[in-house]
Design a protein that fits this description.
hydrolase, about 80 residues
């Protein structure tokens, strides 16, 4: 996953791809519990926006792969909508 981040980071600050954000909340913390999403520090906010943009692109790509496999498995016989 970090290799994908390193590739994507060419559109932002190169240092952002070296490691995950140090002050991002963990899975069991509220977003406001750390300074990662703080409007008080524009540097953090820029990295947060960049990181969430990258992460959402990874999730979208993975969802497309899952839906593609499901579609080929069911041969178009199931409608999701």
């Amino acid at each position: 996953m970090f290799s994908a981040l390193r590739q994507y980071v060419s559109t932002g600050n190169p240092l952002w791809g070296l490691r995950p954000p140090h002050n991002a909340p963990t899975y069991d913390q509220q977003p406001h519990s750390t300074s990662f999403f703080s409007y008080k520090d524009p540097g953090n906010l820029s990295m947060a926006i960049f990181f969430l943009s990258w992460y959402s692109s990874i999730l979208t790509s993975y969802a497309n792969q899952v839906l593609s496999v499901a579609s080929s498995t069911f041969s178009g016989g199931v409608s999701l909508f």
